Amino acid sequence: MRTRQPTPPKKSPRAKPVAKPIVALPAPVGAAEREEIFARLRAADPEPKAELVYRNPFTLLVAVVLSAQATDKSVNLATAPLFAVADTPDKMLALGEERVRDFIRTIGLFNTKAKNVIALSRILVERHGGEVPRAREDLEVLPGVGTKTASVVLNVAFGVPTIAVDTHIFRVSNRIPLFVAPTTDKVQAGLEAIVPEPYRLNAHHWLILFGRYICKARKPECPVCPIADLCRYPMKTVAA
């Protein structure tokens, strides 16, 4: 007698994915709005300053190298005693990697950063007479120095109208939006091309401070933002 095989259960039809609505991203603000945005930022802070504490171009360079993945406050706490004994490449070399490491131990990645500080100090002494070079290509080959660090040094130490794009400026530029791009390098190139010339020298400071204290990542302070009426960000924070 043939045994009857059980009928396999029918499979439930797979639910079709629900198409997500396409949300149109706002277009970047126009030239007149850009002019007004920077006019307001300047009015709120006519003479913006870097929050990193430094004594000269060399200590600025070192401070910016140390600030990678660290807060300006933590860097300032570490560099105050460091720069008191080593504020030139020669003095930093004399201090040595081990002692530099001890000074910056409270900063993230301090082992690698100590090596970079000594290595770049040696290059400055051997190739540039102990001076920080003013050419971007010479800065960017120094250990621990990339596009952002070079741009900060050129802007703050030598008055070159560059815009060093960090996480804050990247967010602000894409959020307002001033210039929309997927990488910091492209945002930098875009901003340097469109920021009105009278504001270009200090734009780096205004945008980074604006992103740090008002246009925050998680909960932007839209109710007190000086450019809220010009910003096209669709998810503004409302007053409680």
From TrEMBL:
PROSITE patterns: ENDONUCLEASE_III_2. Residues 66-213 form the HhH-GPD domain. [4Fe-4S] cluster binds at C215, C222, C225, C231. It comes from the Bacteria. Binds 1 [4Fe-4S] cluster. Its cofactor is [4Fe-4S] cluster. It catalyses: 2'-deoxyribonucleotide-(2'-deoxyribose 5'-phosphate)-2'-deoxyribonucleotide-DNA = a 3'-end 2'-deoxyribonucleotide-(2,3-dehydro-2,3-deoxyribose 5'-phosphate)-DNA + a 5'-end 5'-phospho-2'-deoxyribonucleoside-DNA + H(+). CDD domains: ENDO3c. One of its GO terms (molecular function) is DNA binding. Its EC number is 4.2.99.18. Keywords: 4Fe-4S, DNA damage, DNA repair, DNA-binding, Endonuclease, Glycosidase, Hydrolase, Iron, Iron-sulfur, Lyase, Metal-binding, Nuclease. The keyword Repeat does not apply. It is an enzyme of class 4 (lyase). Gene3D superfamilies: Helix-hairpin-Helix base-excision DNA repair enzymes (C-terminal) (1.10.1670.10), Hypothetical protein, domain 2 (1.10.340.30). One of its GO terms (biological process) is base-excision repair, AP site formation. Belongs to the Nth/MutY family. DNA repair enzyme that has both DNA N-glycosylase activity and AP-lyase activity. The DNA N-glycosylase activity releases various damaged pyrimidines from DNA by cleaving the N-glycosidic bond, leaving an AP (apurinic/apyrimidinic) site. The AP-lyase activity cleaves the phosphodiester bond 3' to the AP site by a beta-elimination, leaving a 3'-terminal unsaturated sugar and a product with a terminal 5'-phosphate. NCBIfam families: nth (TIGR01083). This is Endonuclease III. The lineage of its organism: Bacteria, Pseudomonadati, Pseudomonadota, Alphaproteobacteria, Hyphomicrobiales. The gene is nth.
